[in-house]
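Lab notebook, bench 4. The sequencing result for the construct came back, and we need a structural model before the next group meeting so we can plan mutations. Quick request posted to the team channel:

Model the 3D structure of this chain.
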Amino acid sequence: MSTSAAEKLNAREVAFNADLAAIRELASVLPGAMPVAINGIKVAASIRPRKFVIEGGDDTPVIMPRTAYQIVYPDGAIMIDSGLDRETHNSFGGDEPYYPDQFVKLQRALDRARLIVLTHFHADHVAGVVRAPNFRELARKTVITAETADFMVNRPHRPHLQLTEDAADNFIVMSYRKYYPVAPGVVLIKAAGHSPDMQMIYIRLQSGHEILHSIDAAWNLDNILQVKGKAAPWVKEDVPAIMGQLRWLKHIHETEKTVTVLVTHDDGLFNRVTSSGLVGGALALD
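Done. Here's the predicted structure in token form:
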């Protein structure tokens, strides 16, 4: 008997077995106050046809912001990813939006942060640290995985972002198997697929609200809702792993009503969560 279409689809998908209950427990392991808010910022954008953003899409242009997030505590803040300078943004090609005033604010937030977490080695996530005039000062409070360090030294996303071994030694480099509680209320989740070193991030606020930042597993919330991957020819991903992640994220989105799923490059979602107040639309800079 021939294999059904559903069986073929399942053969191409690797289940993502993250355990939300275990992640929630780890969020309370480290001592200290839980975060009180999360803020986001857009420093640039790419505009791509929807047919590249999601399988089966058309030629409708989709705005894909380049974002970073700030987790605010009573006594400081943690930054999630670091945005990118104009030169790095231009290296992606085309004359696309860049917001220099917003990048200045992001640089100030990085300077003031207690800790910075880089989720993977791609240029729009790491360049704000790598290209900073005070690189060593920022790197010494920046957490990356050993996999990310290897990419940044040996296989950088852009040639001008390549680091020497000595430069990479400035980072806080760590390894973990599946989950890692990096701060009170904040848990890193291994999620190789979009890149071999990618991590998602779980955040629980003092209010009880939860944020699950899917980073680049999806480019748009529709990737998650429809369980359809990206279709850009230049993107080289582990597709079976991504499909499993999208299915897991959809399950969380539909069944966990206290959890807000974020997507790095979804402009409409960013605008909705900031206008509703779930995510602050301006970084705390004091």
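Residues 14-275 form a domain with the Metallo-beta-lactamase; Chain A fold (CATH 3.60.15.10).
Will bring this to the meeting.
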